[in-house]
Amino acid sequence: MEYRDYYKVLGVARTATAEEIKKSYRRLARKYHPDVSKEKDAEQKFKEVQEAYEVLKDPEKRAAYDQLGSDWKSGQQFRPPPDWTSGFEFRGGGPRGGGGAHVFEEQGFSDFFSSLFGGASPFATSAQRQPRGGRDHHARIDIDLEEAFGGGTRTLELKRPEVKPDGTVELRTHTVRVSIPAGVADGQLIRLAGQGEAAPGGGRAGDLYLEVHVRPHRLYQLEGRDVTLTLPIAPWEAALGATVTVPTLGGAVDMQVPAGAQSGQKLRLRGRGLPGQPPGDAYVQLKVVVPPASSPEARALYETMRTKLAGFDPRADLKR
Amino acid sequence: MSNIVQTYDVCLVSDDDWLAAGEICRLCRLDLEAVIEFADLGLIAPRGHSPEQWQLPAAALPRLAMAGRLMRDLGVNASGAALVIDLLDTQRELERELERLARLAPQ
What we know:
Chain A is an alpha+beta fold. Helices cover about 25% and strands about 25% of the residues of chain A.
C-alpha cells in the first residue's frame, strides 16, 4: 500500500496546532464537499481531506502517525511496523460526538488508513469493535437519462474492510451487479438490503443506499419526472402550423405545432417523461430558427415579406 | 484480492412512501432534535402529532441526507444546513433556467 502524508493533504506543517489543523480542514472541506463543490474530483479530494483530519484531530492517532517518522513521501510503498502501536494507551471511548450526526465514519478511507486505524486496530473506538448490527452505507451512482427511463444493469465495485487471520485489515473489492428500475428519478434512493456494513457480532448487516444522480443530457433537461426538449422549427412552420417529428425518450412521435406559434412557447406531450405513478410529461419548447438570407432567392423572399407585412411590428410592446 | 460477483435486484425507495421519524434518523444519520429543527425551519413537512410519531415522505430523504452530511462534515448547525440547501436549490433552478435560455439562443 502507499504511504499518505496527512499533513501535506491538509496543507499544514508537522508542528501545526490542533486549531490550525481544524481551520485547514474546515477550509478544504468547504472547498471540496461533494454537495456544494464544482471542483473536479471533489469527492475523492474530500475523502482524502476527511481521512487526514480523522487522524490529525485525534491526539493519540496523530502521535502514532508521527511515530512513523517524517522521511516518508506520499505514494511511497509502505507497511506498518509490527510493533508500531506499542507504547500507547488507548482510551477506547464510546462513539464520538454523542449525536447521530457525528458518528465516526471510515467508509471509503484508504488501505493505508485501514491498516493503521481500522476495525481490528486498537485505535478503533470501542463502539466500532463491539458486536452490533452493521451500519448502512451510502454511495452515489451516476446514470444516463436513457437508463433512468428504461432501467438497466450497472456493475459497482464496493470496498469492504475485512479482518484477516493475522488481525490486519484488508480492503476487499466486491463487484456487484445492480438492476436499476425503470423510472428512477434524480435524487431517488435505491436500497440493497444487507449490502452495507457486515455485523461483526452476527447481527443484521446494514443496507447499502445508492443515491441516483442523472447525468445532464445533450437533448433533454430533467426536472422531477418531466423532461424538456428544445425543438428548432422553421418560421413558416411556426406561422402556418405543421406536423413535426419529435424525439422523445420512448421513441419519436409526431406533434402538431399550432399556427401562430412563437419561440419559447412550450407544448406538452402527456406521459412522455420518466415512467412512474403518474408518469412525467415531455415538454417541447419551440425555437424558431430563421434561415439566412444567403441566396438571391432567399433575399427576395425576405424583401417581399418586408413589403407585404409592413404592418407587423415585433417591438410594439416596447412603445406602450 | 479476488473479486466476488453477485447480482442484486433492488428495492426503489418510492417518493410516495412515508417513513417513520426513527427510520429517517437512521438513514440520514441525524438525531431527532435535528429533524425537529428542520421541520421548524420548513425544510420538511412531517405528518403525525408528536415528533416520535412523525412520518416523513421518502422524497425528503435526499435533502435530509444532505443536511446530515453538511452538519457532520462542515460543522454547520441545522439553520446553516437548511440555508445552504435552499441556496443550492436556487442555484440549481437558475442553472436550469440559464441552460434553457442557452438552448433557445441562436447557435
